[in-house]
Amino acid sequence: MAGAKAGKNATNGAPENPVPAFELPEKRRTKKYALCCATLASMCSVLLGYDIGVMTGAALYIKEDLNISDTQIELLIGTLSLYSLIGSAAAGRTSDWIGRRYTIVFAAVIFFVGALLMGFALNYAFLMVGRFVAGIGVGYALMIAPVYTAEVSPASCRGFLTSFPEVFINVGILLGYVSNFAFSRLPLHLGWRLMLGIGAIPSVFLGVCVLTMPESPRWLVMQGRLGDAKRVLDKTSDSLEEARLRLADIKEAARIPAECTDDIVAVPKQSHGEGVWREIFLHPTPAVRRVVVAAVGIHFFQPATGNGAVVLYSPRIFEKAGITSKNKKLLATVAVGFVKTIFILISTFFVDKVGRRVLLLSSVGGMIISLACIGFGLTMVETHPDEKMVWAMVLCVTMVLAYVAFYAIGMGPVTWVYCSEIFPLRLRAQGSSIAVAVNLVTAGVTNMTFISLYKAITIGGSFFLFAGISTMAWAFFFTFLPETRGKTLEEMEGLFGKFNWRASFKNKGNSKGKQATATTIGDVQFVTSG
User: Contact, 388 vs 476, CB < 8 A?
Assistant: First the structure.
């Protein structure tokens, strides 16, 4: 009977248990290896966060101990971003030369030296030298962490993993705030030096741990080490089939023939970074031009919307709002760091589910309202100096916390996620370094001029200005940035091509069940979904 039944099914042409022509390997249930790699790489962002956070409170004691002016405090706080520019500019070439992993180690070593110099500083000039060295290390870390994380992450959770650098920046800021409060009761000459010098400890831990990480698979392909790249991709992909496809895409981007299966191959010279600057600035394709404008735009607006002013000068903001006790100002500052950290952790779980564009627009919208309310509250306090306006003080503190929460939900992490994934492989290191350089210059100018700005236009007026800049940022993001959720790194150039540009705003990032068609014209790949 079984034979007859089988025959009957065969006769009808519909087998009882049809077997598909091919079957993809079962999707893995865990991404622990990619998670560990992203976590270790992103930990170098703690260096930047700690330096930002600890200087916020340490500046109060440095000014008193070294008897320096507000202008010198502005330079001390704000120049870190400009010093970081040197490390960020060099990191692109360094990471192409010695690899992403050893560039992270190099960053940790430089910051270690800088932290020790600041901790043993005898005067303002010595302190600025330590700040300069630490800033170079911070610049290296700031650029390389999101690049490595994006290159090792599978597309399904790349947004989640590439938001980790921003998570650890906020963890570092919180640790810096806690360090301020913990050492605030020590003798004046000793407390701020311990606050700064203890930052050398996480850099040692980071430098040792990073050596256990694998190298970026994309860098390995650029060096012709296909066998090593395949082994890393096998461990960091959702399935072996995805690993094979990722390797094929990277080989194509590196201009290595698809049929090449050797473990070690000769790579065309252009894959090592030669001619990159010419392709970015002198002869960019329309897609590359749009990618550069998008990356530079989002990195300009991130610091221009006032985050540095709120984070670095929060004790002054709280003082202007009516809080006079030094301990209470530091406690309120710790609350800022705590809120930022909590909300950045929340955002990591939504960046791949909701999408970059939705989070970014929602975040900036909330920032606009918060900044306007801070400006209103500070203006009311400033115009009624003889009255104790408790409601205005509560409004200012609440809106500062709301601002950092909205920033942490979208603007903070999405900037790094977006920039790390939109550049094509051959331009990724140098392109990211350009965008980060814009970020650092803008942050440096904003941070170094905040005190002078609020003295010129009032502190309330300065926050109204930030609210206006945030409105411009929202308009730029709404009209110019497409959704990148669910796209592989090798598809980004096609996403920014002429054909896909307008349609990308209607794309929700979910291409399941659709067939993709790719057409290559010159250096640009246009991808359409059927």
Answer: no
Helix (H, G, I), strand (E, B) or coil at 272: helix
Spell out the residues 6+ positions from residue 446 whose beta carbon is closer than 8 angstroms to its own.
Answer: 78, 303, 304, 306, 308, 309
| Those residues with Cβ within 8 angstroms of residue 311's Cβ, 6 or more apart along the chain or in another chain | 52, 53, 56, 173, 336, 340, 404
Separation CA 465–CA 461 (nearest Å) = 6
* Residues 251 and 452 sit within 8 Å (Cβ to Cβ): no
Which residues, in sequence order, are bridge partners of residue 521? 524
pLDDT band at 353 (very low <50, low <70, confident <90, very high): confident
Q: pLDDT by residue (tens digit) across 430-445? A: 787 788 788 888 988 8
The Cα–Cα gap between 451 and 462 comes to 10
- Residue 234: pLDDT band (50, 70, 90) is confident
**DSSP β-bridge partners for residue 225:** 264
CA distances from 27 to 150, 238, 248, 495 (A): 20, 6, 19, 26
Main-chain dihedrals φ then ψ at residue 263, nearest 5 degrees:
-70, -30
Asked whether residue 405 carries a pLDDT value surpassing 90, the answer given is yes
* Kind and range of the H or E run holding 250: helix 240-253
**Radius of gyration from C-alpha coordinates of the chain:** 25
Residue 95 has pLDDT above 60, yes or no: yes
* Token pair listed for 216: 């970026």
pLDDT band, residue 349 (cuts 50/70/90): confident
Q: Which residues lie closer than 8 Å to 40 by C-beta, 6 or more apart? A: 206, 209, 210, 212, 213
Q: Which of 167, 258, 196 is nearest to 57 (CA)?
A: 196
Q: Contact at 8 Å (CB) between 121 and 66?
A: no
Is residue 289 within 8 Å of 431, Cβ to Cβ?
no
Give the E-state strand segments of 224-306 in sequence order: none
Q: Is 449 helix (H, G, I), strand (E, B) or coil?
A: helix
Torsional sign, CA 165, 166, 171, 175: positive
What is d(CA 228, CA 398) in angstroms, rounded to the nearest whole number?
51
100-109, 263-272, 308-317, 486-495: least confidently modelled range: 263-272
Interstrand relation of 516-521 and 524-529 (parallel, antiparallel or unpaired): antiparallel
Q: In 3D, which of 175, 222, 201, 122 has the Cα closest to residue 424?
A: 222
Q: Report CA-CA distances (Å) from 505 to 350, 361, 366, 448, 479.
A: 19, 13, 22, 37, 9
Q: Is the pLDDT of residue 490 over 70?
A: no
* Dihedral angle over CA of 470, 474, 444, 371, nearest 10: 20
Share of residues in the chain with pLDDT > 70 (%): 82
Superfamily of segment(s) 32-217+275-480: MFS general substrate transporter like domains (1.20.1250.20)
Amino acid occupying residue 409: I
Token digits of residue 452: 């002078």
